[in-house]
Design brief:
Blueprint: H1 2-27, H2 32-35, H3 49-63, H4 86-110, H5 117-137, H6 145-153, H7 159-167, H8 169-179, H9 181-196
Helix pairs in contact: 1-3, 1-4, 1-5, 4-5, 4-6, 5-9
Membrane topology: Multi-pass membrane protein
Domain Peptidase M50: 118-177
Pfam family, one: Peptidase_M50
Amino acid sequence: MEFIFQIAILIMSVVIHEVSHGYSASMLGDQTARYQGRLTLNPVKHLDFVGSFLVPLVSYMFGGFIFGWARPVPYNPYNLKPGRWSEATVAVAGPASNITVAIIFGLILRIGLVSNPAFIQIVSLIVFINILLAIFNLIPIPPLDGSKILFAVFPNKMLEMRTFFEKYGLILVIFFIFFLWQFIFPVILLLFRLITGFAI
């Protein structure tokens, strides 16, 4: 039952994340996501078998927590309003949406709007999973959102470096998860405590 709740929360959280990318791109001039019917909270439009089912199952079985992703909402960076920060704005919209969700539900816990232990656990999961998604996606390694923000800071002459990171990004992400994630996880726990007032 706990796994079902976690997978449901994860799916809706990654859907909100991806739809936020799409709306941000739409506001900046690119309607690709709208034309493909991806500006919807209907999970069916966003689910990815590996990221939405297989990876969450494996992470739950071996790590005790749920992690995964949805199909990325497509956008064409060449349709965005001119400016080096346009792509970064689209990228940051996803993690920002997860932080917003975490804060809203975290305040519910902090001010004591729920007292039932089962509801407290569900709301805590919503906060934790959304913080996890936000922090992970802000890591500056392609194809994660943080890389788009980092590349906006890079001068144009460093394009070759961006090409290198994008070529080997998946390998770098896997390396990060196995060897460096242990240094990031305490940050997630700290943010959870700051937002909710509770410790995990």
